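Components:
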Amino acid sequence: MLRESSRTHEESVDFAVLMDGDGESGVPHGAKLLRFAEAVVSGSAADRDTARRALAGAMGAEALVDAAGVISNFERMVRIADATGISIGPMSEEDHALVRELGIDRFAPTT
Amino acid sequence: MTTISYSDARYPIRPDFAQAHSRFWESLARPGAWWTGAERVAIAREARAAPQCRLCLAARAALSPAAVTGKHDRVSDLPETAVDAVHRIVTDAARLSPSWYRKRIESGLSDGHYVEIVGIVVALSSVDAFCRAMGVPLPPLPEPVAGEPSGYRPARLVSDEGWVPMVPPDNAGTVEADLWPSGRTGNVIRAMSLVPDAVRTLKDLSAVHYLANENVRKAGVDRGGALTRSQMELLAGRVSALNRCYY
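Structure:
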């Protein structure tokens, strides 16, 4: 959906940051958003506090709350997918190419 | 009923979060389709304890989780196979496999019991992750409500796109017609439809945390909040990658 939304908004996004977590995503405030996501998923309380302050300072409290909502939403969605073994559904050639380019195929479910 | 409030948070949190989380808390406490209220709350307690479980920590560190044997550090009297399901979904979901799922079923967990566990664990994970993100204390789990599970199982189920049976995409004219617009939904929404109330909770929480389901596939739609859709999807993609999620 990032690819589709960036096209809709005519933004140039570097999808590699999704896997690396580093670099310029092309999304406004992307670095602070990514740091906050990482702190929530795998950081310490101190990491979260630092990332929270940085994001709130740059984007405001409302954006911080919205970001917390999205991150926690996907903590749920990934577990639904993994715990039920759902198939990803039909993918276009472009989808396949992006999966290969980013190395997402290494996350493919085991049998 | 336990009403969740975030009024003491350092940053102001819009009230629909506390309202949606309180609705989940209320449903968590009540008997479900396959588990009693007490068992449902026990599943939530196990989910919160799982990250500290020594067996889970060892399994997560191992090349293959199957290489690690032993018993979980449990905090309930749920069956061992249910405890294993809860702990693994919390701590190592990306390495769950069809064979692991089949073993859960062979060891006495019905598919309905399993899907209801998934529903509880994932909803709780979003509430707790939100609290961690905002630096607010985790709300105490609700007091269970007495009663028996309904045993409800949708009349139409198919095993087509996952390990578990699901309501078919075309759900028009069925009791499950409210779960998604007939014929138009993703597998991640259908995934828990063996327990329809788990999908209803998912929709309720998603509408507050992210987007209403009907808007998820509309790339130009944002929630009218402080983030653009691209900022939301950047977060979504990074969280999925950090969790090593293929989907």
